[in-house]
Amino acid sequence: xxxxxxxxxxxxxxxxxxxxxxxxxxxxxxxxxxxxxxxxxxxxxxxxxxxx
Length: 52
Hints:
By secondary structure, the chain is an alpha+beta fold.
């Protein structure tokens, strides 16, 4: 496994986690504090996504 596939696996593990506390832990371990993702050209901040 390389760094890219490891990151992808951690990303999906975080979003597929059903336990909210564990999901927040996984997101915190995967995302940097200033990370962002663009969905349909609308920016979403990691800190916003992690509270949902």
